[in-house]
From TrEMBL:
Transmembrane feature ranges: none
Family: Belongs to the TPP enzyme family.
Entry-linked InterPro entries: DHS-like_NAD/FAD-binding_dom (IPR029035), Myo_inos_IolD (IPR030817), THDP-binding (IPR029061), Thiamin_PyroP_enz_cen_dom (IPR012000), Thiamin_PyroP_enz_TPP-bd_dom (IPR012001), TPP-bd_CS (IPR000399), TPP_enz (IPR045229), TPP_enzyme_TPP-bd (IPR011766)
Gene3D superfamilies hit by this protein: 3.40.50.970, TPP-binding domain
Ranges for domain Thiamine pyrophosphate enzyme TPP-binding: 418-570
Signal peptide from the UniProt entry: none
Domain (Thiamine pyrophosphate enzyme central) ranges: 225-357
SUPFAM superfamilies per the UniProt record, alphabetical: DHS-like NAD/FAD-binding domain, Thiamin diphosphate-binding fold (THDP-binding)
The protein's name in its UniProt record: 3D-(3,5/4)-trihydroxycyclohexane-1,2-dione acylhydrolase (Decyclizing)
Keywords, alphabetical: Thiamine pyrophosphate, Transferase
Domain Thiamine pyrophosphate enzyme N-terminal TPP-binding as annotated: residue spans: 68-136
Top-rank taxon: Bacteria
Length: 624
């Protein structure tokens, strides 16, 4: 006779999640971020309370953490998963309606970046008895639709829990997706609020601990032979390192492979710091925000070897960076990504693929232009350490140089959107694992919550979060959460009085008029004068505004050892920045990025920008 245990559906969910383990003996879902409302407080909220106090989960509590906003607490969960290289994740729960739809942006971010997070969104009544309930979105033509259907395009698995026993299949499916190296991404379980509270007799076997092993797919023998032959035939191969190298744990294998076979390594945003910048085979950033050395190597390459990259437009210069006759190999755990741009695919785990390829290339060594790499690094040093004139504000590059000078091997630079991602990718000289960038979705507002999640994932490392005033204004409330939980990290808040990055794209890139980005271009008399240090201090952070780079460095050193966030505000110029793909700073670098320019314009700058646009798009490689 089957042994059963009577629990509500919400209690069963918490109990089941508490026994899903990693190969290292940790819970895969470490805990749950929660903001409660009428769609989850009575059902899941009560179950999480019991889980926290060990009533459902044995002697080990299942923790719940309170956030300030559904989107940003999900960003913290995403940063945690990225910081753990997808080997652990968090759950995030909200009520129905706005609480749930607030998480949709975060779900899209996780989907684009292939990161696991479990969204448990409160939903309407399965019984439909009290419909329409508070915050219910009604579809006039389809009674099965709720606001949570917005999650469908931005998660890898969606399920609506309309009966308790649906969890018997939905939960294992959810964890299967989140631990699958190819399908990895966010999951949404839309949990009807009446069902959360319903009792069911669950098989005890359902709650037996389970270990989830992340598989390492081996390459197909034919694909492996074809790729090795392509590499052997290449005279000027270049590696393009993506985030899949880090998720595979292939950093050391990549370093050995590149050195043994004399192949230069270039980096995407997600792949940066897989190889330390000090490694002699690391030629730096590729693409729109790329280095002179990396882009020159990629333009001259007769074979580009992508490893764990989804070949985003910033990486490929909107398909114009690689030579027209260059061949492309793509090593990726997912066939969808491996086949992009008409590449010769090698579908496999990055580490396993490199380990299998290297013996087939015995005796092969292409060689690299070490002088080009050295020239680039000297130019970076000179540019980042350029003195600031007495009557001038520092550039973002000078801020990066100042922070770099006081960073250590333990420092991780974190950022997400605006000016800094391009500048950091171009100029930051990362130690191993010392770079965390959300640039798949380039989501403003990720930064502060992401820093909190990253510090939770990497408690022994120093997290320095670069954020512009624009992103800070979009989402800063999780500072209060970090203070409350005593999670220390350092925020370098660069204030250029508006959206400086998009202003440069608008004016320099597209030839347009400066409009609606910087406060001074918003056609308003009373421009905001925001005291960011006072604002951050009001939430409990240690906050200071510094007048120059020496003050910035001193404040970073002083932040070490504090058990709460430190926010350092520094004013920067909005007009000067390397990395637009147009300007030449620290030597030739950067590349074209396709942003549509109006075909008809009322100024010479726009007509000139349109001519550049047409000339560049004509060079695009038209592949799948």
């Amino acid at each position: 006779m089957t042994q059963t245990i009577r629990l509500t559906a919400a209690q069963a969910m918490v109990k089941w999640l508490s026994v899903q383990m990693t190969a290292e003996g940790e819970r895969f879902i470490e805990g749950c971020w929660a903001i409660f409302g009428h769609g989850n407080v009575a059902g899941l909220g009560e179950a999480l309370h019991q889980g926290l106090h060990g009533q459902l989960c044995g002697n080990t509590p299942f923790p719940t953490w309170r956030g300030q906003n559904e989107q940003t607490m999900a960003h913290a969960a995403i940063a945690f998963a990225k910081g753990r290289a997808r080997r652990q994740a968090h759950a995030v729960t909200s009520s129905i309606g706005p609480g749930a739809t607030n998480m949709v942006t975060a779900a899209a971010l996780a989907h684009v970046n292939r990161l696991p997070v479990l969204f448990i969104a409160g939903d309407v009544f399965a019984s439909r008895r009290p419909d329409p309930v508070l915050q219910q979105v009604e579809d006039f033509d389809d009674g099965t639709v709720s606001a949570n259907d917005c999650f469908r395009p931005v998660v890898r698995y969606f399920d609506r829990i309309q009966r308790p026993e649906h969890l018997l299949t939905a939960l294992p499916r959810a964890l299967r997706v989140m631990t699958d190296p190819a399908d990895c991404g966010p999951v949404c379980l839309a949990f009807c609020q009446d069902v959360q509270a319903e009792a069911f007799d669950w098989p005890e076997a359902f709650f037996a601990p389970k270990v989830w092993h992340i598989r390492r797919p081996a390459p197909d023998a034919r694909e492996l032979a074809e790729v090795s032959a392509q590499i052997r035939a290449a005279e000027r191969p270049v590696i393009l390192c993506g985030g899949g190298v880090i998720y595979s744990g292939a950093e050391a294998v990549l370093a050995a492979f590149a050195s043994r076979h004399g192949i230069a390594v270039t980096e995407t945003q997600a792949g940066k710091s897989a190889l330390a910048q000090a490694h002699p085979m690391n030629f730096g950033a590729a693409g729109v925000d790329g280095s002179a050395a990396a882009n020159a190597a990629l333009r001259a390459a007769d074979l580009v070897i992508g490893i764990g990259t989804r070949l985003q437009d910033f990486t490929t210069g909107s398909r114009t960076l690689f030579a027209p006759d260059a061949r492309l190999v793509s090593i990726n755990v997912h066939g969808y990504d491996a086949a992009k741009h008409g590449a010769l695919s090698l579908v496999a785990d990055a580490r396993i693929a490199l380990e299998a390829l290297s013996p087939l290339l015995e005796g092969y060594c292409a060689g690299v232009d070490a002088a080009a790499r050295a020239d680039w690094l000297r130019a970076v040093d000179a540019h980042c350490s350029a003195p600031v004139a007495e009557d001038a504000l520092p550039s973002d590059a000078q801020v990066i140089g100042a922070v770099q000078a006081v960073s250590t091997e333990a420092t991780i630079a974190l950022c997400a959107a605006g000016t800094m991602p391009g500048a950091l990718k171009l100029l930051w000289q990362a130690a191993p694992g010392g770079y965390h960038m959300e640039y798949g979705y380039s989501c403003m507002g990720y930064e502060l919550a992401g820093a909190m999640g990253l510090k939770l994932a990497q408690p022994a490392r120093e997290v320095i979060c670069f954020v512009g005033d624009g992103s800070y204004m979009m989402a800063n409330a999780e500072l209060a959460t970090a203070v409350m939980r005593r999670i220390p990290f350092t925020v370098v808040l660069t204030d250029n009085r508006g959206y400086g990055c998009i202003n440069r794209l608008q004016t320099l890139g597209c030839g347009g008029a400066a409009f609606n980005n910087l406060y001074e271009d918003c056609l308003i008399e009373d421009q905001p004068r925001i005291d960011y240090a006072a604002h951050a201090a009001s939430m409990g952070a240690h906050a200071v505004k510094v007048a120059g780079l020496a003050g910035l460095q001193r404040a970073i050193r002083e932040a070490r050892g504090r058990q709460k966030p430190t926010v350092i505000v520094i004013e920067t110029t909005a007009r000067d920045f390397p990395g637009t793909g147009i300007e030449t700073v620290a030597g030739p670098h950067g590349h074209f990025w396709e942003v549509a320019v109006p075909a008809v314009g009322d100024r010479d700058t726009m007509r000139e920008a349109y001519e550049r646009y047409i000339a560049n798009t004509a060079r695009a490689r038209l592949t799948n």
